[in-house]
Every structure is written in structure tokens, then in C-alpha cells.
Amino acid sequence: MMLHVPVMLQEVLEALRPWEEQVCVVDGTLGAAGHARAILANCPRCRLVGIDQDPSALDEARLNLAPYGDRVTLIPGNFRDLSTLLPRYEIKVCSAFLFDLGVSSMQIDREERGFSFHGEGPLDMRMDSGTLSRGVTAADIVNSWELGDLIGLFRRYGEDPFAVPIARAIVMHRERYGPLMTTESLVALIRRTLPAPAQRKAGTHPARRIFQALRIAVNDEMEALRETLESLPSFCGDPSTVVFITYHSLEDRLVKQHMKTWAAEGKGLLVTKKPLVPREEEIRENKRSRSAKLRVFRFGPVPTREERRAARRKEGRSGGLPSA
Ligand SMILES: C[S@@+](CC[C@H](N)C(=O)[O-])C[C@H]1O[C@@H](n2cnc3c(N)ncnc32)[C@H](O)[C@@H]1O
């Protein structure tokens, strides 16, 4: 099983400096706590609040964060519910939020979760394994949605050029042979449907886009992200830093739009005018990082150029995040 390697870790740590500012850092996508552990190690005084909707991720994180004792609060839940989760745990002032979106390597590698087009598993894909949500699985969608809705889903969230033939093949299959229940059977159907040249197309698995679309729908990922971006300013202390790592253009576009709006409304500083991307070396070592884009926004009074230069001199560093 592959361990989850935290993506763009150095860039995340750099974005959260200066550490004296950090009172309480919320990791809204805790996973196995790769980022969280490094944050706690670098920030000796801050409290870390880790949220994840996957109970097995929280179990893993609990073990990994045990050395940090009561500096850590673990919260099972969806980050879209920040407004109810934070007060429940009496968290008032947050100095930073990190969202490393999507699924973890652990979730993908566990075939029984149904996220992987390489493995054999049930068509499930629920990040919370049904513990929090209404429990719609990928199989429910594949076997009950109308043709037009499947086409719309595969186009919108998968941006798949073969959305129409694949959706048609799914509907025909379930009418003739009954429901599709496993990842393997869906992959086989996609392979049968795609023309050979498309299958040979370099770099991507023929089922990648369809699996992405189903996963986004099952977990209502775009709506959860939109709601969170809309409510986030109300939880952010002054100053506070928000870091997003996204893995596909739909997510990235949404984050970019909101950060631009926050800047236009004078809520703070858009630190990354262009998203940061992983270094070549990181992509070589961790393939999962290749589509990552990192964006940072700092809520609070916007410092002048001179103030930002002085802060960087004080930090005693030459590189780091590009200033806006
Ligand atoms: C990419 S992994 C995070 C990995 C983590 N940064 C690390 O270094 O170990 C994303 C995690 O976020 C969780 N997640 C995704 N969307 C979520 C949501 N809306 N609410 C809560 N957790 C979510 C997933 O269950 C998964 O464990």
C-alpha cells in the first residue's frame, strides 16, 4: 500500500509563515495528517484542528499526531459544515486554513472503497463510507440516472470527450444485462466503448475522467467547495491565511474566482497571483502531485510593498512565495 506523501509541503509551510501569527490552524482535509504533522513540528505554540469526513483517515491521523497530545483536536465531519463544527468544539479564532482537496492515496489504494480504476472493488466512492451523507454510491448513479443526466455529469465533471458513447453504453448494458456493480465491470465497459486510438492516447487511463466525474458527484465535491469558499471569510481572523491545493481545473477555477473577489472587496491580499505548481523533482518522486495547484490568500489589512519587503527581510529569506 502506498503511503500518502503530502503534496507541496514546503510551499504550504512557507505560506503559513510567520509562525508567530499562527494561533490555531484548521486542516480541513486532514487525511493521514502529513501536512498537519509538519505544521505542528514547525509551529511550537499553535493548536491544530483536523477535519476529515473519512473515519478511517481520522484513525490514521490520530496515530500520526499522538506525539502532539492536546495541541490537536480531531473532528469527524465535512468541511462544508464549518459553521456548525467549529462552535461545537469552541473554536473561535482561526489564524489559518488548509484545504488539500480530493482523495488520499490511502483511499485510492483500498480497492474496497471503489475509487480506483486499477483495482477490483464495489462502485462505492463515498469518502465518508456512508457515515455522514445520505449514502448515494457510484453504483446508484451509474444504475439509476437517466441517459441525459449521465452525459451531463461526464461532460461537466469529467470533461470527457466520449461522454455520450460511454453513457449510452452504460444504459444499454444495464437494460440488457442488469446493473454494473464493480469498478472492474465499469472499466471493462469503458474500454469496450472507446475507439482504440483514444485508448492508446498517452498518459491517461481511459476510465480516469469518468471515475473523476462519479467521485465528484458522489461526494458533492463542487457544491461543498463552493459553500465553503462563500462562508470562509467569516471564520478568518485578522490576519489569517488560507491555502488551497486543487487537483483539477474545475476546483481551481472556483478557488481562483473567490480569491479574486475577496481581493476586490478589500478583504486582504491575493498572495499567489498565479498558482504555485510542484517542482519537477516532486512530480518525479510523487506522481500524484503532478496536477496540483496551490493558491494562497491572506485576510486582513493589505500591507504596502515596502512593508512586505521589510517583513521578508525580517524573516531572513530570499526565496519563498511570490509577493503579489
Ligand atoms: C488529499 S487528502 C489530504 C491529505 C493530507 N493533506 C495529508 O497530507 O495527509 C484529502 C482528504 O480530505 C478529505 N476530504 C475531502 N473532501 C472533504 C470534505 N468536504 N470534508 C472533509 N474531508 C474531506 C478526504 O477524505 C481525504 O482524507
From TrEMBL:
The keyword Transmembrane does not apply. It holds the Pfam family Methyltransf_5. Coiled coil: none annotated. Keywords: Cytoplasm, Methyltransferase, rRNA processing, S-adenosyl-L-methionine, Transferase. GO terms for cellular component: cytoplasm. GO terms for biological process: rRNA base methylation. Its main location: cytoplasm. Residues 282-324 are annotated as: Disordered. It is an enzyme of class 2 (transferase). Its EC number is 2.1.1.199. InterPro entries: RsmH, SAM-dep_MeTrfase_MraW_recog, SAM-dependent_MTases_sf. S-adenosyl-L-methionine binds at residues 33-35, 52, 79, 100, 107. This is Ribosomal RNA small subunit methyltransferase H. It comes from Aminomonas paucivorans DSM 12260.
